[in-house]
Amino acid sequence: MQIEVQVRQISPATAQATARTHQVMIDRPLDKGGEDRGMMGGEQLLVSLGGCFMSNLLAAIRAREAGITDVQLSVTGTLETAPGRFSAIDVAVSAQTQDHALLQKLVEISDRACIVSNTLRPAVTLNFRVI
């Protein structure tokens, strides 16, 4: 199986990515010569990790009919230079629940099921934690 997306230039600094019927803009901030019409690629990488993980976590919660609601993530990447890259990414998970042990277990399961975290793990230190 393969997943394919399309990315095309739409202005001197802006690109548009299309996946299935969905589109997002990719751009640089004004202070970096962009038009600020969308997130930078690095920000989208963090969003991709958060989105993939969240999708798996919500599926795990639904499958178990767990009393876990209002799930929120804060995804923070630590930048290095020469070459520019993320050296670590921290995913802080919060939710409304009375069963924090179950939430922690589902976080671990969701991390292992996420194709983005599985792809990034060999190159970046990933930390998933319940707050």
Automatic annotation (TrEMBL):
What domain of life does the UniProt record list for this protein's source? Answer: Bacteria
Provide the coiled-coil residue spans: none
Q: Name one Pfam family in it.
A: OsmC
Give the InterPro entries listed for this entry. KH_dom-like_a/b (IPR015946), OsmC/Ohr_fam (IPR003718), OsmC/Ohrsf (IPR036102)
Question: Cross-referenced Gene3D superfamilies, in alphabetical order?
Answer: 3.30.300.20
- Name of this chain's protein: Osmotically inducible protein OsmC
**Naturally occurring in which organism (per UniProt):** Deinococcus malanensis
